[in-house]
C-alpha cells in the first residue's frame, strides 16, 4: 500500500465525527479560495495536490474530526487522523521541508505531554519523534536550499537533545527510557544533518541547483 492509499484509509475515520456547519463552510471556502487563486499549473504535482484538497473537502463535508484530532496524542484513537492531516498539509504546501522541521517540535511536545501524564504511550511518542526526524532529514536534503534547512534542523535537534536529557534525569523508569531513546534520535539526527552539510556545504551554488534558482538570485551569487 503506497502513502497516498494510507492517507486515504486514515482519513476515512473522519466520517465518524460530525463537524459544525459553520466549520464546514469555513474550511470549504478557504480551500476553494486557495486553489482558485493559485496559478494554474498542469503538472502531476499540482494535479495531485488538487485531488488531495478535493478529497479532503469531501470528508470535511461528510464528517470531520480536525479539531478533535488536533490535540490528540500517540495512542489516542484520533492520532492517526492527526498524522494523516499533517501529511495532507505537507503535500499541499510549497515549504514542505520547513514544515517537516516544525513537526519535529510538535512530536517533542507530545513526548513532554505524555511524560507529564505519566502515560505509557510515551514509547509510541518517542517512535513518532524519530520518524519525524527521519522525514525532516530526507525532505531537507532534497531541497535546493538544503544548506539553510539542514542548519536549522541541526540547531533544533541539538536543542531538543538537551531538553530531553534534562527531563529524563528526574523521570520515572519507563518515561526515562523513552526520553533517552528520543534524545538519542535527536543526537543522531543532528549528526546526520551536520554530515550532510560537510559533504556539500553550499549546494545552492552548484551548477545543477543554479538552474532551479530565480534569475535575480543567480545574479546575486556571481
TrEMBL record:
Name of the protein: DUF5667 domain-containing protein
Positions with biased composition (Low complexity): 181-194
Domain of life, per lineage: Bacteria
Bias type Polar residues, positions: 205-222
Region of interest: Disordered: 164-222
Transmembrane segment boundaries: 46-68
InterPro entries in alphabetical order: DUF5667 (IPR043725)
